[in-house]
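Reviewers asked in the last cycle whether our approach scales beyond single polypeptides. To address this, we selected a multi-component target totalling 392 residues and predicted its structure end to end. The input consisted of the following lines:
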Amino acid sequence: MAGEANVYRPPLDTVLGAPDLLDDVGWGNVKYYLDPTNGSDGNSGLARTDAFKTLPTAYAAIPANLNNVLVYIAGTSSITLSAAFTWAKSYTHFVGECAPSRVGQRARIFQLSTLTGASPLFTWSATSSMCINIYTFQGVADATSLINWLVSGERNYFQNCHFAGGGHATQAINGGASLKITGSENRFIDCTAGVDTIPAATGMVGILFDGQASRNTFESSDVTMYAGHTGASFVEVADGTGIDRYTPFRKGCMFINSNSDNFLMASGFLIPAFAGNNSSRILVDPTCMIHGTTKLDAGARGVLYGGLNAYTGADLSGVAVELKT
Amino acid sequence: MYEYRVTRDYMFEGSQLHEGDIVTDADFHEPDMPANLIGRGVLEPADMEAEEARLTYTEPEPDEDDQ
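The resulting structure, written as structure tokens, was:
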């Protein structure tokens, strides 16, 4: 039994020209539906009016590797996870049907208040899959759940997703991150990592790279923080092998500390010492903006490069220079 | 149970919050609502000493050679 013919087309992409991923010409195979407000786990999930109610049940019903799509129909009810969740099915896509607001999209996922040890709360280990228009907020009084999202898979595509970790004071602490990436060759467009409502303590970061994460690219994406201490950072590389090759931030990425009148980050990018002759780079293009830091890379590790109007002379205009201060 | 102090009178989704009241996470039906209200300047942590301790905690600096 196939899904409904009236496929959902996310109202996105007109500016950046990303593909109309669910066009009925060919993208997307069977559509499954998840509707926390009106669905039931006894349903087939194959029609809007026969949608599943919970994410684990809906996910379990989808065969992997067929470019099937799970559509999360947003409404007055949300998904609250009672256990950490892993999206491990490759070539399987997850799309929120809701207004594509930049933050707090209403196709929303939360951590149950009594769930502990959910670190990460949501793991995306699939490859070659898409996640669009999904908001995941990790904000409960639990200091054992510090990583909101982990992307460990490769060659995935994330668009207009908000990875909101550290959404509770108990979790916005050292070791916390809204988005941890250990996979490679993933593309993030119009995404947001972080919250700007809970003061981030020292060691809390927006994006954490680890495990030789390589060739992950960010376009028109934001990292939003509310530094409650100078030790909070936008981006952290876990160790000297945390990234490999290149990690570009392109096309108007913004790094915003919304408490800059009170706390400037001591280092917007927290980068450890790398092994000698290591050419791994974080590259920030000239359309990006960083706000609310004292230094960009206080350790002056030679890893962070960008234009950002830091031109060193007429002959070098537009040539990326190392961002140390 | 995490407690918040209401810093100003505020109508939120049909409920009136009164300045000085203490509310908890359990008073909100979705977990992002307290953070949302903190962002609007409506709530603040009730235990400011604990909040200050959380924010100012610093780990010992690792040796450069250990990194």
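Residues 1 and 26 of chain B are 8 Å apart (CA to CA). We regard this as preliminary and will revisit it once experimental data from Aim 1 are available.
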